[in-house]
Amino acid sequence: MADLNYQKPNGFSPDQQGVDSSWMLHAVALAKKGWGRAAPNPMVGAVLVRNSQWISEGYHNGVGSSHAEKVALKGLEGALRGTTAYVTLEPCSHKGRTGPCAQALVDAGVSRVVIGTLDPNPLVAGKGIDLLKNAGVEVSLGVEEETCLDLIRPFAWRMKTGRPWVHAKWAMSADGKIASISGDSRWISGVESRAWVHRLRGGMDAIVVGSGTVLADDPMLNPRPWGNRTPVRILLDRKGRTPSSCNLAQSVLEGQVILITNPKAPKHWKQGWRSKGVEVVEAEDGLNVLVEIAQSRGWTEILIEGGGGILGSAFAVGLVNEVHLFVAPKILGGLAAPGPVGDPGITKMLYARMLRLMEGQICGPDIRLRYLVEP
Ligand code: AOF
Ligand code: ZN
Question: What is the pLDDT of residue 230?
Answer without folding.
Answer: 92
